[in-house]
Amino acid sequence: DVPKIPDSRGDSDGPRRGSLCDRHCAAINNVQGDLGDLGCHLHRPRVPPATSTPGCCQQHSEEVCESCVVKTTLTAENAVEANKLSNNYKFGFKKWKSHVTARPWEDRSEIVKELYSDLNVVRGSGGSTLTCGNVLYLLLFGWWLLLLYVLVAAVMFITIIGAPYGRLCWDLAGYFLWPFGKVIQKVEVRVPWESLWGVLGVPYAPLDLSPLPQVPKSHQVREAGAGESSALLGGPTPRRWRPQWAGTGYWHRAGTAVWLCLAYPVLALAHGLVCVTAWLLIVLIPVAKLSARATSRVLLLPPERVLIRRLRMTEVPLEGEVILCCYHAANPYYYKYSVDGINVFAVNLLPLVLVTLVLGYADSPNHLTGSAVKFTLALLSIMPLSYYIGMAIASISAQSNFAVGAVVNATFGSITELTFYITALIKGSREGNRCYAEVVKSALTGTLVGCVLFVPGLCMVIGGIRHQEQRFNSRSAGVSSALLFLSVGGVFAPTLFSKVYGKLVCGECHNVTQNPLGHYLCHNCHFDLMDNNGTLYYSHVQPLVYTVSILLPAAYLIGLFFTLKTHTHIYDIHISDCHMPGHHHSAVVHWSRWRALVILLLSTLCMSACADLATEHISPILTNSTISQYFIGVTVLAMVPELPEIVNGIQFALQNNLSLSIEIGNCIAVQVCMLQIPILVLFTIFYPTNFTLVFSDLHVYASMFSVVLMNYIFMDGKCDYFQGTVLVMVYFILLAVYFFAPSPSGC
């Protein structure tokens, strides 16, 4: 982080507005004006001058100059990834950790390469096969696959003509009991065809005794995706002979027909069950690959061409194609596995969305399941849909210009939360139940408090496990903090106004001292805004709400213009190409713009349907649950849609990029106050609901205390796991307060 001489291009944006140190350090670091125009550049090393830093620090304080010369340098494989990285540092844009383009294979680590490799690689030393994952495979799948194959082998022996397949099933029974350290090969084996055909009553065909061409080593072992090959354990190999019917007459044999009709469907169904179960468990994905490859390759080969043997250190395998070779059933790094750029967790949760929609709309009378199950399924379905929406937004923004990215982020950035809030308000208005409006207010407050305390606190704790102290850009965090102070003050201004001028009304009061002039104990007290035919509300509170709903989005736009146009240098981001000259890689995007747009629209529609089901079946939970409705809204309804964002923040923190982890929480909190709440107020104008911008005292105190504490923690631009623990503990204390709080009036 040494000051650098500006290159010949100079500063295209001219002199910066701000302090003298800002302008001087911007010239030193050659900060680019608009990160959206950055491509994928390879920057030449620059020699720092000897007089730049002392000159700056003589005129200004050491602390200011230290903050302005620190610069974040990021690397990107291509222009699309560079655009995505720069979008992460733009205020108002969704922060996305995963790649939107396919990474070059040579840049992947050996651990990741192993995740995507086929199970046909023979290693000289695979290590011990007695591991916890292999024992787990034996307990879950191995023993009953053994029994199934023994049973199928007995059936095939009984059919006589299926005896070769019976022998194959007998060998596979021992293999699938413990497949580790064993190899299945496709070989050309000489068999006593004359004696075998005599037993089976089939005319013997003469053999072609010409030797087979030697199999090239490049075809012996393949590693999926890498395009690389490695030979087996070399050495002399015996000659193999091939019958005349091999390859063409196999499918016409009677034994094959019996095998395909009787045995193969049963075994394919069993392996399919193993494959699905192992895939859902994620760490057992190697077992899923094993079952899939056995079903598609091994069970469709002639039995005489399948060779099963155990590998030993001093043994040379027979020449031939390796079909299966597995050493370990479990790999804990499969949480990194992705399919077409989609994380395996999001892939596994996608069928849950289909189950939720079918079960929710096909079983309306609740004959199959109750409302609690449907509500839980609908809430869980929101998580993968939020992931798909986030990736679609990041893909479109990375492949488009700044204007398109800004429009997409502003339109769909808060679509998950708004969909649920609006459907809940509509249902509450139709039923005349004020409880739905209170739940929406609790969810809004829970999102605000969770993103201010829990998200950055959890990221600090997890990131602090790997890094002793983490630094972040205090200036960019200060912009978000200032907007957050403004937004919280604006949102709760109508509430404070009603406390000052409203009339306190209590539902039940008891005289404690038995004296008419003594003390009274009152319950269910609230400030009535509808006194005197609602003069206070309609003449004073409601105009204030509309005024605040106009000023907050305007302040949000000013913040966007400040951070994205006039003061982009406060983010001091430098993006460079991580490849050496001569190793340029073209961008291979996972989702094209049109594909991402289609997925974005479909995910939004499914999100609306799941939100409708959640609000449809939340009523029994609110009425029959002993837990406060405040707690349900603050925890479950507020934080479940934000789980993908929390995961992104944790991943950024583990890479020592705490600035983005903090910005994730701050941006969500700012969007709640400056976009989501004004949109809900605007919605109530066209569709009258019970939603009013007057919150309970608990919401006001919790939100303001959280914002003040967050700004105090982020004051010095550095943090550790202890400060993160403080934020998390305060968040749990507030959750305990909501848990023991009585239900709001009207619920």
- Counted by DSSP, the helix tally is 26
Poorly predicted regions are 1-70, 193-248, 579-583
Over the alpha carbons, how many angstroms does the gyration radius reach? 33 Å
Strand proportion, as a percent range, falls in 5-15%
Strand arrangement in the largest pleated sheet? 5-2-6
In total, the number of domains comes to 2
What's the architecture of the largest domain in CATH terms? Up-down Bundle
Say what the CATH topology of the largest domain is: A middle domain of Talin 1
Query: What share of the residues lie within helices?
Result: 55-70%
Main sheet specs: 3 strands, antiparallel
CATH superfamily of the largest domain: NCX, central ion-binding region
Structural topology:
Elements: H1 20-29, H2 52-59, H3 62-69, E1 72-76, H4 79-88, H5 110-115, H6 132-158, H7 163-177, E2 182-186, H8 193-200, E3 207-208, E4 242-243, H9 254-281, H10 285-296, E5 306-310, E6 321-326, E7 338-339, E8 342-343, H11 344-362, H12 371-398, H13 402-412, H14 415-431, H15 435-466, E9 470-471, H16 474-491, H17 493-501, E10 503-511, E11 520-528, H18 531-566, E12 573-577, H19 593-616, H20 619-624, H21 629-634, H22 636-639, H23 643-654, H24 658-686, H25 697-713, E13 718-719, H26 721-740
Parallel strand pairs: 1-12
Antiparallel strand pairs: 2-5, 2-6, 3-4, 7-8, 9-13, 10-11
